[in-house]
Amino acid sequence: MAGIDKAAIAFSIAIVAVGVGIAFSMGAAQDAAPVVSTPSVATKTVEPKAQADPFADIADKVKQEAPKVEEKMMEKPQEKPVEKTVKVEEKMKMVEEKPKEKAMEKPAGPTTHSVDIPVGTSVPGCEESNACYLPADITINAGDTVNWVNIDSAAHTVTGGSPADGPSGVFDSSLVMASAEYAFTFNDSGSYDYFCMVHPWMVGSVTVN
């Protein structure tokens, strides 16, 4: 009986030793296994850097100089517009006075008056309507000139005087051919009759003031 008890005790001790060994080996295996850690996620947000404004300096300068410009504008005298209005009024007066000055001007100098010798006057008949010279009677100022133009195809004369009394000797064109002209300046006032020596029915007159 004593032998059996000793064998049972020895068997129990062996089982305990085997269990302890197994437990020990499993703990060592767990220690040797690699440790896997879960990756960490970064939650920090990076704020973008603010870009520098290239016109910031110019804008600041404009803001600083704006009050100075306003002060200069307030300091300037506002007299120029008044001067301009005065000048405009003076110009208007000058424009209004010019026509008056022209009205006060002396009459123009000596002028030239034209008298035609019409076509067909070489034949009697123009004397009936006093159209042998056109115009037949003319009034001018002293110093003016009368220019006779022969439009007829025949030659004529412009001779001071009358057919009844003959030439006066004051002026005489002699023969004025077709398309030719004769001019005479009357410096003295008075009444001057004239006629054509070739065709005595042709008469005219010049009155000089």
TrEMBL record:
This is Blue (Type1) copper domain-containing protein. The chain crosses the membrane at residues 7-29. Its cofactor is Cu cation. Residues 96-117 are annotated as: Disordered. It comes from Nitrosopumilus adriaticus. It is found in: Periplasm. Keywords: Copper, Electron transport, Membrane, Metal-binding, Periplasm, Transmembrane, Transmembrane helix, Transport. PANTHER family: BLL1555 PROTEIN (PTHR36507:SF1). Cu cation binds at residues 156, 196, 199, 202. Residues 96-105 have a biased composition (Basic and acidic residues). Binds 1 copper ion per subunit. Residues 131-209 form the Blue (type 1) copper domain. GO terms for molecular function: copper ion binding; electron transfer activity. Coiled coil: none annotated. Gene3D superfamilies: Cupredoxins - blue copper proteins (2.60.40.420). It comes from the Archaea. Its main location: periplasm. GO terms for cellular component: periplasmic space.
